[in-house]
């Protein structure tokens, strides 16, 4: 592994710990862009059994950097739930040393990680960048395969609806979610004791048809626990024409999870994917003296001499 100790890129790197944020001196911060198939994982958040994505990534980082978990302080942007996938998850970690190049670390991590988790990019991060707190918006896709027979190649990544869905009515209903609302009615009880603001800003909610596949795309400032899956579940009922589109503002106004439960249950996790996270551009500026971003590298074959004349 190639690294060099030099002038510090980040003095007093802020690192999240269990009871808040504490500064770590003499640290360098690194940003990871991750993709994973969440089928066999109990979500992102760290726990040893059953395995989570964070736990698996940390084990790879420990092996590649020779540091301990408490030193790496890995933080993810979104705590995706059990069975949920990601194409654009972002995380950051810190090291006490600087790297000359990130390509070797990148190759090492993907060599250690199982094939259902990939590091798409590694880049140096400034001291003020935080994978979660610097995020301005997140984009999720929920895929629904709407045909009588399920495509077996989509079975792990799309929910199968044998009911013919009215996409135009779903599109009309989705518009009611756009804007700033109290989404208490669309949130399951949180898994932790943090006080969470139930008011979220939904920037857009699109329903796109791609043959038999319906793709629901939602972008928001943030989301409550299972909020996206609960919104999708209601849209599925509306798409079946079991309830009218204007039920959405009624449930939003109730701010009561039991009101939503009268009409729908949460949609299954395997149709959901975290696609991308948008950040404050000023937080993405690289620090001085840092190595270039690593996007992976292609292997090449050296030309050999023809064994005859």
UniProtKB/TrEMBL annotation:
HAMAP family: TruA (MF_00171)
GO biological process, one term: tRNA pseudouridine synthesis
PANTHER family: PSEUDOURIDYLATE SYNTHASE (PTHR11142), TRNA PSEUDOURIDINE SYNTHASE-LIKE 1 (PTHR11142:SF0)
Taxonomic superkingdom: Eukaryota
Signal peptide region: none
Residues where substrate binds: 140
Family of the protein in this entry: Belongs to the tRNA pseudouridine synthase TruA family.
Residue positions of the active site: 81 (nucleophile)
Keyword Repressor carried by entry: no
Keyword Isomerase: yes
Catalytic activity: uridine(38/39/40) in tRNA = pseudouridine(38/39/40) in tRNA
Protein name: tRNA pseudouridine synthase
Occurrences of domain Pseudouridine synthase I TruA alpha/beta (ranges): 35-133, 173-280
EC number: 5.4.99.12
InterPro entries in UniProt: PsdUridine_synth_cat_dom_sf (IPR020103), PsdUridine_synth_TruA (IPR001406), PsdUridine_synth_TruA_a/b_dom (IPR020097), PsdUridine_synth_TruA_C (IPR020095), TruA/RsuA/RluB/E/F_N (IPR020094)
GO MF assignments: RNA binding; tRNA pseudouridine(38-40) synthase activity
Keywords: Isomerase, tRNA processing
Pfam families xref list: PseudoU_synth_1
């Amino acid at each position: 592994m190639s690294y060099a100790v030099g002038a510090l890129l980040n003095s007093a790197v802020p690192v999240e710990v269990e009871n808040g944020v504490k500064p770590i001196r003499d640290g360098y911060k690194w940003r990871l862009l991750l993709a994973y198939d969440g089928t066999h994982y109990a979500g992102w958040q760290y726990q040893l059994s059953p395995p989570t994505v964070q736990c698996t990534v940390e084990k790879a980082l420990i092996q590649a950097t020779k540091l301990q978990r408490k030193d790496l302080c890995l933080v993810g942007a979104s705590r995706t739930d059990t069975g949920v996938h990601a194409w654009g998850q972002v995380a950051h970690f810190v090291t006490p040393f600087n790297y000359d190049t990130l390509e070797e670390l990148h190759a090492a991590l993907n060599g250690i990680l199982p094939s259902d988790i990939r590091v798409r990019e590694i880049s140096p991060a400034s001291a003020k960048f935080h994978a979660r707190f610097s995020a301005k918006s997140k984009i999720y896709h929920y895929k629904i395969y709407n045909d009588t027979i399920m495509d077996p190649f989509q079975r792990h990544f799309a929910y199968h609806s044998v009911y013919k869905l009215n996409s135009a009515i779903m599109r009309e209903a989705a518009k009611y979610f756009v804007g700033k609302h109290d989404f208490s009615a669309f949130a399951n009880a949180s898994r932790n004791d943090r006080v969470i603001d139930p008011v979220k800003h939904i920037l857009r909610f699109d329903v796109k048809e791609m043959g038999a596949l319906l793709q629901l795309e939602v972008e928001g400032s943030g989301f409550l626990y299972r909020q996206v899956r609960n919104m999708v579940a209601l849209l599925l009922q509306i798409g079946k024409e079991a309830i009218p589109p204007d039920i959405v503002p009624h449930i939003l106004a109730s701010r009561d999870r039991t009101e939503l439960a009268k009409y729908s249950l949460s949609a299954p996790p395997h149709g959901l994917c975290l696609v991308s996270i948008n950040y404050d551009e000023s937080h993405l500026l690289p620090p001085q003296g840092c190595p270039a971003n690593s996007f992976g590298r292609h292997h090449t074959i050296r030309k050999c001499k023809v064994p005859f004349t």
